[in-house]
Specification:
The protein has 238 residues and is mainly alpha-helical. Helix 1 (4-14) crosses helix 6. It has a 3-stranded mixed β-sheet with strand order 1-3-2, covered by helices on one side. It has helices spanning 4-14, 51-65, 89-109, 113-118, 144-152, 165-175, 181-195, 209-216; strands at residues 124-129, 220-222, 228-233. The protein is globular and about 50 Å long.
């Protein structure tokens, strides 16, 4: 079985880069190397039973973002959807409700009672259109709900132990796909779902699939209170 260090070395071989240090940060930008389609990643997870699932999720990412070339000739540092397709507001609301409900279930399962309590009762969902305002930067200006989502939900998968070696190796690489912990955890969910197979409890539905659907459509969430999540849909032009 590959160790974390073995997986880091394997990734460097895939992108023909020199291994200077066997640390996870050395893989930041790894997935960007294989744009636009990610086809050269074939075989990266061939030692894992969940390899096909991991590749399917990456395929969806590459298909959505495609080439990293900007109209001005420069390249995107991250995976960006330039022209998200429209989404019905009711559909967006349903997806957000599913995302938060499943997060609450997972939080209870891994013992994060504080996060579970912040999501129960479920926050109201309000759907808006246009550019979202920025969240407050200072912790004292943030609502408890926002702090829980940013600080606790973003590390929820870390509480599922033991961490698979490949997941430990690639966590930074997955995060810097778009600097979005929820997108990272969507792409990495098969690692952790498999790690829970020995758990006698009923399987938890993927909490990050609904979030990924929102991300595909360019939807951003904002939280400024304790009981409401605002969704901002990209403004549609004729």
């Amino acid at each position: 079985m590959l160790t974390t260090e073995d997986m880091i070395e394997k990734c460097h071989r895939f992108c023909n880069s020199e291994v200077v240090e066997l640390n996870t940060d050395s893989l930041i930008g790894f997935f960007q190397v294989f744009r636009p389609d990610g086809l050269a990643l074939a075989g990266l997870f061939d030692h894992l039973d969940i390899g096909d699932q991991l590749h399917q999720r990456l395929d969806r990412l590459y298909a959505a973002c495609g080439d990293d070339r900007r109209p001005d000739g420069r390249r995107d540092a991250y995976f960006v959807i330039r022209r998200p397709s429209a989404i019905d507001p009711d559909k967006a609301s349903d997806l957000a409700s599913g995302w938060l409900e499943r997060l609450s279930v997972l939080a209870k399962r891994v013992g994060d009672d504080d996060l579970a309590a912040s999501l129960n009762p479920a926050p109201k969902i309000r759907v808006l259109e246009g550019l979202p305002p920025k969240h407050p930067k200072a912790d004292e200006e943030k609502s408890r709900l926002l702090r829980c989502l940013q600080d606790q939900a973003s590390v929820l998968l870390d509480r599922i132990q033991p961490t698979p070696a490949a997941a430990a190796a690639l966590r930074s690489a997955y995060y810097f796909v778009a600097c979005d912990p929820m997108l990272r955890d969507y792409l990495m969910w098969p690692f952790y779902a498999a790690a829970r197979e020995d758990d006698d409890a009923e399987p938890v539905a993927d909490p990050f699939e609904p979030y990924f659907q929102l991300w595909l459509h360019g939807v951003k969430y904002r939280i400024f209170g304790e009981d409401q999540v605002d969704l901002y849909l990209p403004r549609q032009t004729a």
